[in-house]
Amino acid sequence: MREVAVIGIGQTKIDEHWDQSLRDLAGEAVQAAMMDAQREVADALYIGNMMSSTANHQQHLGAYIADWVGFKQIEAYRIESACSSGAAAFRTGLMAVASGEIDCAVVVGVEKMTDSPGSEITAALATAADGDWEVDQGVSFVALNALIMKRYMHEYGWKHQDFAQFSINAHANARNNPFARFHDPLTLESYEKGGMIADPINVFDASPIGDGAAAVVLVSAESIQAAARPKITVAGSGSATDTIAAHDRRDPIWLNAAVRSVKNAYTQAGIGPAEIDLFEYHDAFTIMAALSLEACGFYERGQGPRAALDNEIGLNGRIPVATMGGLKARGHPVGATGMYQIAEVVQQLRGEAGANQVVDAKYGMAQNIGGSGSNIVTHILRRV
Amino acid sequence: MREVAVIGIGQTKIDEHWDQSLRDLAGEAVQAAMMDAQREVADALYIGNMMSSTANHQQHLGAYIADWVGFKQIEAYRIESACSSGAAAFRTGLMAVASGEIDCAVVVGVEKMTDSPGSEITAALATAADGDWEVDQGVSFVALNALIMKRYMHEYGWKHQDFAQFSINAHANARNNPFARFHDPLTLESYEKGGMIADPINVFDASPIGDGAAAVVLVSAESIQAAARPKITVAGSGSATDTIAAHDRRDPIWLNAAVRSVKNAYTQAGIGPAEIDLFEYHDAFTIMAALSLEACGFYERGQGPRAALDNEIGLNGRIPVATMGGLKARGHPVGATGMYQIAEVVQQLRGEAGANQVVDAKYGMAQNIGGSGSNIVTHILRRV
User: Fold this and answer.
1) Whose CA, among A283, A320, A339, B214, lies 20 to 30 Å from B226?
2) Which DSSP symbol is given to B83?
3) What pTM did the predictor assign?
4) Could you read off the pLDDT of A241-262 as tens digits, one per residue?
């Protein structure tokens, strides 16, 4: 594959944006990324989005957004892979540029969730699971994760509070991220008193939805002139599925698709977990934080919560995670999340992460999970 | 770009499939394509689908279908581009294989439309247009095309019956296609008596919805061993957008995006319209048949209906179109249509089109239109 570089990033704040439509948000992120890249035209626009058809009664986001941002007659379409739509769109852009068919691709993840009643959003999120064998039985998406967490705690003997530091760390990092939804710190006491959603997942184990968009600009690495700024390339990429229904897995508390996905990314990058300087993981729920750390080789099976307990996940820790707030505190506008993760890794590798900078970060990894672990996309970026 | 070949095709009949779900249909087409290709495993599955979120209350079709067909841990996601979702998915598969990242990709277009009330499908189809500036004014998708057709007839002086042969030809060709929804011939008398949908579009100007799936298997051309069967490669590919709202175009009766899209495809293939042996165009409405023939260089601006009037579109005509029935008579399961078109071109180039065979076809073109001309994807396939 032709090597691909990220030359621009743009993000909107994640919030309840009552005064901005889906295309306003996408447009803001795309234009910020184009400004950052110092480009005015692109050849293709790939859009990661999960639920515009139900939440916004609008599909065909390719033409819809390309038209809005003034990209004339370019290729444009939407990629949907539930909560991993953002990273799937990034992979589409990556392969398009790598193939030589597209010279300059813009990838944007966008989701506008707060216009609809919560019950509709819960129903839309459930379409990420198996309609016949999970959703029709009445299980919500949080409940599926709760079943996984409960089994995991039972199997390995962890208590609920052992997961607290995942969320506390995320909230601490979000304080310095102007794009994050939450800027309040979280204490252990608050975490333990959090309102229950689906036992054992309480409100502080779960990431908040929100409205937002994040975008990047991709070109071939060889096309970049010597620049003042560090050059950021895609060193590795992997994408894998598992059974869509959690109960169909031989071991529902092990992320098979993450193992396969990250293995491909490590192999392409020629590195292993020891070389990763920061990891933007998919902490939609604290249980997913633990499982991701295990599947990616940072902890032994069943030992993920050690990362939280021993506080090895801080900015100076063994493996910094959620460095800009993660899904938990930056927010989780589902189809946009994968692109926020990529943009944050680029911030870190460029040395533009401000107070949250991971010192001398060279390799950053982003992992985006769709469904209850059924579709996992991993990217490793590198400062050249 | 690495040259890419189509080594397998599979289709289901287009119909009201009350006894088959979306995944049944997709699975049937994928398995038929894999059998045809004599392969058992693939590395990626790209799915073209427009409306599963509303019509089937299921998203995340990547994991959903990969799991169903037994593809373990492969990359899989959905591409949505309204009615051009099928061809957009094909382009994604093409670039994935061309990049070298994926060795064997399966692309399937699938749509299951008849489970929902017609009013819901009409609402879902309308999400292909601009929600704020078209749909909120009360215009349906057929009405948008009717406005375009009316203006076109006014501008160039054509009568409604001048478009009849587009539909008559499609119905004639569908008779020999076992996968087509309709097998009844259409007469000029019936065409003229067709019930009005949105003046001047009557029921015989419009393609029928339906349930169906069509799939192909893609590999790099160089990886194919010498085979008994003709080798079919992708000679050219192009994809372009226009404004999403028809009224925003300087000339709403001219398909700008088709011009750009087909120009890229012709350039890559190193040929022009004179070398195209058959054209699977997007005859969702007879007006789109006329506009496509003009935009692709077969007729002068405003002269598209000449093709129908002079009957130059038959199997032995100057430019055979809708050779297996087209959208009009094969049927138009929206997100699947682009993949039916590709599969039919492959049938023709292989010499497997039976009674509808275009003699010695070497170059076949498929063009898939999303929205009212706002997203157009063109592929030229070649028998090597």
Assistant:
1) B214
2) B
3) 0.98
4) 999 999 999 999 999 999 999 9
